[in-house]
Design a protein that fits this description.
Belongs to the TonB-dependent receptor family. Residues 106-207 form the TonB-dependent receptor plug domain. GO terms for molecular function: carbohydrate binding; siderophore uptake transmembrane transporter activity. With 785 residues, the chain is an all-beta fold. It folds into 2 domains: 6-96, Immunoglobulins (Immunoglobulin-like, Sandwich), CATH 2.60.40; 102-783, TonB-dependent receptor, beta-barrel domain (Maltoporin, Chain A). Strand 37 (608-613) and strand 38 (619-624) form a beta hairpin. The two termini are 15 Å apart.
Length: 785
């Protein structure tokens, strides 16, 4: 077999009558690849850019018997023509389903995002997610800023992110969704509300599971991009597999850099031009927000051998440094505060189907060590003009001795051990029993040489253990049209801490150690059901009594993120319900349509929210906000004309209200205010249009152009009754992006250009922290092998 060579299958499908078999569904398998397509109006089809090897191609038609052919791809172009036999009237037609359909038909409210086309654009994974119904990506600024995900009203750490089913928290903060090149990703599964038990974690509000590409051929790819606000990115990734003995190696590396020096303005961007004068509102550039990160991951082992589907050991190294521009809001401006972080992670991943008869096993274990240093030792005050504030030529200084409190050179060392084990026993073809377990342990040691020696000698300790065990049963009935799943989960949490406390802020303060020891054990359960009325139309529903345990950072705080500790934080509880349908692949000649919708209810107790605290809202703190009741829906419409013009539109709305009952001085209950949940966008719309064509300018080339329009309705920054300091209402926002991508012949080089926020509108997410304005970005992607 020629190293790294690729070829194409093409051909036509016809009936016995010699008429073209229009819209025949065609599935290809082989070389660890699964692809699907449909024959066009002339019965023609093609599969492009496949590594040389042996494949099976199956042709399905509503009126004819399915037909499978096995063929060897050993040339650049190979023609495979097929004639389908007419089926008898009593034949039962079974259509092979795509991976996306298999996921969506399990009854969970899920969206599946394919990333193949986006891999060549100057687009980040979070931007793809933000274009998905029911998903709102909440980012606090430019590249490298904090990101939270809102799925149908649930936000923060209630929404878990996974890479191949492994919690992303284990990979360190510099290895985020925006650090992973889209070219490494096969698909993204977005579960809204009820989450399948195989993900194991306490993802009460939903989950985002990034599924990476398998190693199907020997390849080496790279990309570089540059754009506005001093943004530069580069990545390289490759894989090798020895087809004789199964030895497999895969590696990837990335680097990101951004000045993030975009303009901000509004009623939080004000300066006093001289002593005693009123504040003047200005347009100012962010001047202390540089972000740098680098990282690499290497895997070695064996895949698709008799004794294992995969056995891969991996090492991940990453580091980042980040200047800190503001506190929790833009009221406070920093000019010298920054943080540095490094992560080392080692892991082992194993999977085997039929390890014993009918028993599938997968296991993952990792150890990570993160070192984080926060540097804040200069007391000079800064303004949005970009230089120290000064009256009478003397710089103002913070009385505390630093920009965000006491001077600090605090260094934290976080150590995390994570394991995930999944066992699936197939009782028969239609019934499967699964046992899943997740174990996560965390410890943190801290040292700050800026503290007085006596105080620093009182060592702080933080330890955390989370264990989640789930048992599930899945049934398929009526030729797999009806699928049901029930599950139960056990949640165990134990955390201990020894933290320094002081009885005053004076130099004579007494310093002591406050010990805290908390354990909790809870049970949850749920289920899902779906029924395929036709191959195109599926209805589904799910329900769960869910629980979410507080994360380590929420409990212990994080100095680098201006996040205070919340030692007594309680777990969240929620009853989640989903009901929806999907109607896909509705075809009329060259037109294809798809519709999906989901309605949901979230009845939540002790919801954990991250809120700004202090008179200047400089820090964050997590709090349980009590009883929140949420109702809502999301809706998606897609259209495809002749596999050339694509359009999608989605809308998401939810109504999250405060149902807390308070009491007057006499103990009488007061009716809840039913006010809307603060700092939470509740109504969004997204429109995306794309046009693709082949042989543009050059034969064998591909050209695509796209536009994307995002609308976010105004929402309350703080309480809708009392408001909050600064901006009470975050105004309605419109973001309009456009771009194009051109792939040269032979599919080796691609060039893209994107313009984001073309209208240069003011865009906000968390507490009026403004995001970048109009920006221009270019990207070059090329295959070395």
């Amino acid at each position: 077999m020629a190293f790294g060579q690729e070829g194409n299958f093409y051909g036509k499908v016809k009936y016995n009558s010699n008429e073209p078999a229009v819209a025949t569904f065609i599935a290809l398998k082989g070389m660890d690849i699964e692809k699907e397509t449909n024959a066009n109006i002339n019965g023609a089809y093609n599969f492009r850019n496949l590594p040389y090897g042996t494949y099976s191609i199956t042709f399905y038609s509503v009126n004819d018997l399915p037909k499978t052919v096995n063929v060897q791809l050993d040339a650049k172009d190979k023609e495979v023509n097929v004639t389908l036999e007419v089926a008898a009237l009593d034949e039962v037609f079974v259509r092979s389903k795509t991976e996306q359909q298999k996921i969506e038909e399990k009854g969970f409210a899920v969206s599946v995002i394919e990333t193949k086309e986006a891999a060549i654009q100057s687009i980040q994974v979070n931007e793809l997610l933000d274009q998905t119904a029911g998903v709102r990506v909440r980012q606090s600024g430019g590249l490298g800023s904090h990101v939270h995900y809102n799925l149908n009203g649930m936000t923060g750490n209630s929404v878990k992110v996974f890479i191949d089913g492994v919690p992303i928290l284990n990979f360190g903060p510099s290895f985020s969704l925006n650090s992973i090149p889209p070219s490494l990703i096969k698909r993204i599964e977005v579960y809204k509300g009820v989450v399948p038990p195989h993900l194991s974690d306490d993802a009460m509000g939903g989950a985002i599971n990034v599924v990476l590409n398998g190693i199907t051929k020997n390849e080496l790819k790279a990309s570089i991009s540059a754009g506005s606000f001093g943004t530069y990115r580069a990545d390289v990734n490759g894989g090798y597999r020895n087809n004789k003995n199964g030895f497999t190696a895969r590696g990837s590396a990335f680097t990101n850099y951004a000045d993030n020096d975009y303009e901000v303005w509004g009623d939080q961007v004000a300066v006093a031009l001289s002593a005693g004068t009123p504040d003047v509102y200005i347009r100012a550039k962010r001047f202390h927000d540089r972000y740098r990160s680098q990282g690499g991951r290497a895997e070695f082992g064996y895949t698709h051998v008799s004794w294992a589907d995969k056995l891969l050991g991996a090492v991940l190294l990453s580091n980042m440094d980040n200047q800190i521009q503001t506190g929790a809001t833009m009221e406070i401006v920093y000019g010298n505060r920054f943080t540095e972080q490094t992560t080392r992670m080692f892991s082992l991943d194993y999977a085997k189907t039929n390890l014993a008869k009918n028993l599938d096993v997968s296991a993952f274990a990792s150890y990570s060590r993160l070192k984080r240093k926060t540097i804040d030792t200069i007391a000079t005050q800064y303004s949005w003009l970009g230089y120290p504030t000064s009256y009478y030529n003397d710089p103002d200084v913070w009385a505390s001795g630093a920009e965000a409190g006491d001077p600090t050179l605090q260094e934290d060392t976080d150590q995390t051990i994570n394991s995930r084990t999944n066992l699936a026993y197939h009782l028969n073809d239609n019934n499967t029993l699964q046992l899943n377990h997740l174990l996560n342990t965390f410890s943190r040691d801290s040292d700050d040489p800026m503290l007085p020696a006596a105080e620093n000698a009182l060592k702080e300790t933080r330890e955390y253990l989370k264990s989640i065990l789930s048992l599930s049963f899945e049934n398929k009935a009526f030729d797999e049209k009806l699928r049901t799943s029930i599950f139960a989960k056990s949640y165990y949490l134990h955390r201990t801490s020894k933290l320094r406390t002081r009885d005053s802020n004076t130099s004579e303060a007494t310093i002591s150690i406050d010990e805290n020891n908390i354990s909790s054990h809870d049970l949850g359960f749920g289920g899902s059901i779906s029924y395929s009325i036709t191959p195109q139309l599926t209805v589904f529903g799910s329900a769960e009594k869910a629980l979410r345990l507080p994360d380590a950072d929420e409990v212990f705080g994080n100095v680098a993120d201006n996040l205070n500790a919340s030692i007594n934080l309680k777990p969240e509880h929620s009853n989640n319900y989903n009901l929806g349908f999907s109607y896909d692949n509705i075809r009329f000649k060259k037109h294809s349509f798809g519709i999906s919708s989901n309605v949901f209810i979230r009845d939540t107790e002790d919801l954990i929210m991250q809120l700004p605290t202090g008179s200047n809202e400089e820090f964050f703190e997590n709090s349980n906000v009590g009883k929140i009741y949420t109702e809502g829906f999301d809706f998606t419409l897609s259209y495809n004309y002749n596999d050339a013009l694509f359009f999608s539109a989605n809308t998401s709305f939810f109504n999250a209200r405060d149902y807390n009952v308070t009491y007057d001085v006499d103990g009488n209950p007061i009716t809840p205010t039913y006010e809307r949940l603060a700092n939470t966008p509740y109504f969004t719309m997204n429109y995306n249009a794309k046009y693709e064509t082949q042989n543009f300018i050059q034969k064998g080339s591909r050209f695509s152009t796209y536009t994307n329009l995002l609308y976010v309705h105004e929402f309350f920054r703080g309480s809708s009754v009392l408001g909050g300091s600064g901006k009470t209402v975050i105004p309605s926002q419109v973001s309009f992006d456009a771009g194009f991508a051109y792939t040269f012949p032979k599919n080796k080089v691609s060039l893209s250009f994107d313009v984001k926020n073309i209208l240069d509108n003011q865009l906000f997410d968390n507490y009026a922290l403004q995001k970048p304005g109009r920006g221009f970005y270019g990207k070059l992607t090329f295959s070395i092998l």
